[in-house]
Amino acid sequence: MNDPTRLILVEDQTLILGALATLLDMEPDLTVVGRASDGEEALRLVAGQPVDLVLTDIEMPGIGGLELARRLHRDNPNIIVGIVTTFARKGYLRQALDAGVQGYLLKDTPSDQLADAIRRMCAGEKVIDPELAAAARSGENPLTERERQVLKLAAEGLTTEMIALRIHRSEGTVRNYLSEAISKLHARNRVEAARIAREQGFL
Fold first, then answer.
1. Domains (ranges, CATH) in the chain?
2. For residues 38-67, b (16+ Cβ closer than 10 Å) or e, as one string?
3. 20 to 30 A from 103, CA-CA: which of 66, 123, 150, 162?
4. Is residue 138's pLDDT more than 70?
5. φ, ψ (nearest 5 deg) of residue 84
C-alpha cells in the first residue's frame, strides 16, 4: 500500500481549519501533517518536514495564498499547491494559475469532492471549479501588468510622484497608466478603479 499523501492546510479561520483537517484526515490515503494560519507559518512547516501538497486560502494576514503559491513554485517545485477559498473571482483564478497552482476550488465544495480533487491534483491534473472556469473564459483581466502595478501602488496611498520614483518612470507616464486603468475598468477615478480591480481579483 502506498504511503498517504501528506498535506499542509493553510487557513486563518480556526474553525474552518479544524473542520478541513478532520474531514481530510478521515480519508485513508490522505494525512494532514501540518496546519498554518498564514503563508509565513506554512513556509516554516514546509521547511521542517516532507510535504506533498499545500492546500491554502487566498486572503490571510501577512503572506497570502497567492504569494505562498509563488514562493513554493519557485523554491519547492515538487510541492503541489491547491487553493480552497470563498473568492469566486476570475482575476484571482488567473493569478493563481500564473503562480503555478494545480487546483482552485471553493469552500462550499463537498468534502468527498475535495478529497477527490486532491488525488487528481497529485496525479498531475489541473482541477478548477467548473463554474469559475467558465466565468474566467468569459472575461480576462483587462489590465496590463504595468497598469496593475501602478493601480496597486495608488491603492496603497502612494502619490503619482512616489509611484514614478518607485517604478522608475516619469509622472506623465504614471498618469497615463492610471488613466488607462480607470478607463478600462469604467471607473470615475483611481480610488474607484482600485476598488473594482480588487473586487474582480485583478490586483
1. 5-138 (3.40.50.2300), 145-199 (1.10.10.10)
2. bbbbbbebbeeeebbbbbbbbebeebbbbb
3. 150
4. no
5. -130, 115
